[in-house]
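Tokens as discussed.
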């Protein structure tokens, strides 16, 4: 049986910017697949190529065995796409918007009413369906957007940051909904900035950085590959680089310490991989004390998906997002000065 989604050696360039360099993914039917990565990593471009909204420069894309590039109209019938920004007409009611969506998908008139009632109940928006969507809260607007993406019963539902800006109650409602449709056989491809969201929801995860997949597997597999527990350490609030290097050399020699990474973006903090279920925390503190180095802050935890990204790139996802934002601001300022 063909996978729900097959992407091989995808490439996309916008002028001088290589948004996607080499992305390959295999997503099986009936699973939630998470894409993680900072802003500008290539996640949204990958989704847009998959959903026939952007034409790639190279690569192969299939949905349920159907070529997206050769037969895009047929592929669209297998796809539901919910963009990050909710796009609804505030004057129309939720039901009217769904009727419009049904017409755009050319659904047979004989099934439209039944299908609309089904998605309204599935998303739990019965009480709002006949109210103007301009009166909806952010959480209800997102549910209506999800209902639109599911109306034609796609094999694959593609979601770009579906819970961004939502309160925790609305986020939990979306999570429960995604688990429900996954259990009923719908494949879900989701991008998110919330690490815990992907960790909780996804059966498989791919981490994208600078247009390339740098890690892929189940959340447990990826975290196990990192190995050990994590210790995050600050010698000082803003540690001088030479002092951070001194601490790194000192701690790397300890038997319980497997790896030490200095994170310049966070005041030269040190991120350690240590043997699990050991007294590594107290050992690290004693070693610093014996060397005459202070401890501004220290904490031990189990590995996270952010640790996977840190191990692969030497920076956290938050650091990468901040760097991408700074780059965008610099480009915008240069354009402004050139006018």
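Sequence:
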């Amino acid at each position: 049986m063909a996978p729900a989604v097959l992407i091989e050696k995808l490439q996309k360039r916008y002028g001088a910017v290589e948004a996607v360099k080499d992305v390959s993914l295999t997503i099986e039917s009936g699973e939630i697949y998470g894409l993680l990565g900072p802003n500008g990593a290539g996640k949204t471009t990958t989704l847009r190529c998959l959903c026939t909204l952007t034409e790639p420069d190279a690569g192969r894309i299939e949905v349920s065995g159907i070529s997206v590039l050769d037969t895009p109209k047929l592929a669209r019938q297998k796809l539901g796409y919910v963009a990050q920004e909710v796009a609804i007409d505030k004057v129309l009611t939720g039901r009217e918007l769904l009727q419009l969506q049904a017409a755009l998908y050319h659904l047979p008139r004989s099934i439209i009413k039944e299908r609309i009632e089904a998605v309204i109940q599935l998303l739990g928006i019965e009480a709002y369906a006949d109210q103007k969507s301009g009166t909806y809260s952010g959480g209800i607007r997102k549910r209506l957007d999800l209902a639109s993406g599911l109306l034609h019963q796609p094999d694959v539902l593609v979601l770009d940051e579906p819970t961004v800006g939502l309160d925790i109650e609305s986020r939990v409602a979306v999570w429960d909904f995604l688990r429900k449709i996954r259990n009923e056989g719908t494949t879900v491809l989701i991008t998110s900035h919330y690490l815990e969201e992907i960790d909780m929801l996804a059966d498989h995860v791919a981490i994208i950085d600078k247009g390339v997949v740098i890690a892929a597997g189940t959340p447990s597999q990826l975290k196990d590959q990192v190995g050990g527990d994590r210790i995050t350490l600050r010698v000082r609030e803003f540690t001088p680089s030479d002092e951070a290097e001194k601490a790194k050399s000192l701690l790397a020699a300890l038997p319980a310490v497997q790896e030490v990474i200095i994170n310049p973006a966070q005041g030269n903090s040190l991120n350690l991989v240590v043997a699990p279920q050991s007294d590594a925390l107290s050992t690290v503190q004693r070693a610093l004390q014996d060397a005459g180095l202070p401890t501004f802050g220290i904490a031990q935890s189990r590995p996270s998906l952010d640790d996977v990204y840190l191990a692969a790139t030497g920076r956290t996802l938050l650091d990468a997002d901040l760097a991408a934002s700074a780059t965008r601001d610099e480009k915008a300022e240069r354009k402004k000065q050139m006018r």
